[in-house]
């Protein structure tokens, strides 16, 4: 056991070839990665798994993982946040992460439990679609990115979003997490 996750052995990351702990959550992440490539047409090279992201609240800091970032047109155009259970509770921290992973607002935020998904407009938080099939494919994401301004996220907004992400992901988190 590592933390509260049952480790079932080792597995190889489908995108990178890296050897990882095999957990039930990791199996769902691997399923999502395969879906993004095989069903949605994204190139493996355009998907970055396990992006560590610092969430700060004053002097407190936690590292939060963005499960996948997806580029289009040379910029991060979509993030995917995975978590078991209810996905609606992941909307706000997903939006916060979309304002911290790059110096600009990422246009598309996907929150998923591996079985269902909500697709959000990164700027407004509006739900654009439901279900895994609604996740933008490579061509759709490229079109969205080409038409998007990628507005910068001001430092004061980044600070507030860091506090929100910290509150959702670190405050009250299980002490057994890394």
Give a description of the structure.
The protein has helices spanning 24-39, 91-98, 138-147, 155-169; strands at residues 10-12, 19-21, 47-57, 60-72, 75-82, 108-112, 117-121, 127-130. It has 178 residues and is an alpha+beta fold. The protein has one domain (45-169): tt1808, chain A, CATH 3.90.1570.30. β4 (60-72) and β5 (75-82) form a beta hairpin. The longest helix has 16 residues, at 24-39. It is globular and about 45 Å long.
Looking at the overall shape, the CATH architecture is: Alpha-Beta Complex
Q: In percent, how much strand structure appears in the residues?
A: 25-35%
Q: What is the top-level CATH class?
A: Alpha Beta
Question: What would you call the shape?
Answer: globular
Number of domains: 1
Annotated CATH topology: tt1808, chain A
Strand order of the largest sheet: 3-4-5-6-7-8
Task: Look at the structure and give the mean pLDDT.
Answer: 90
Supply the number of helical segments: 4
Terminal-residue CA separation:
12 Å
Radius of gyration: 16 Å
Helix fraction by DSSP (H/I, runs of at least 4): 25-40%
Stretches where pLDDT falls below 50 for ≥5 residues? 174-178
Specify the structural class. Answer: alpha+beta
Described by strand count, sense and barrel closure, the largest sheet is: 6 strands, mixed
Q: Which H/E pattern describes the elements?
A: EEHEEEHEEEHH
Annotation, overall tally of beta strands: 8
């Amino acid at each position: 056991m590592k933390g509260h996750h049952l480790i079932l052995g080792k597995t190889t990351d489908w995108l990178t070839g890296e050897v990882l702990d095999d957990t039930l959550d990791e199996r769902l992440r691997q399923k999502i990665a395969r879906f993004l490539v095989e069903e949605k047409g994204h190139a493996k090279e355009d998907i970055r798994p396990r992006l560590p992201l610092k969430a700060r609240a004053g002097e407190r800091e936690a590292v939060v993982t963005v499960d996948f970032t997806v580029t289009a047109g040379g910029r991060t155009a979509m993030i995917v946040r995975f978590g078991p259970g209810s996905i609606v509770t992941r909307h706000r921290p997903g939006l916060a992460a979309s304002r911290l992973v790059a110096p600009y607002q990422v246009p598309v935020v996907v929150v998923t439990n591996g079985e269902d998904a909500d697709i959000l407009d990164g700027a407004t938080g509006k739900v654009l679609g439901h279900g895994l099939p609604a996740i933008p494919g490579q061509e759709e994401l490229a079109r969205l990115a080409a038409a998007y301004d990628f507005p910068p996220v001001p430092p004061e907004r980044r600070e507030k979003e860091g506090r929100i992400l910290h509150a959702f992901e670190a405050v009250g988190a299980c002490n057994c997490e890394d």
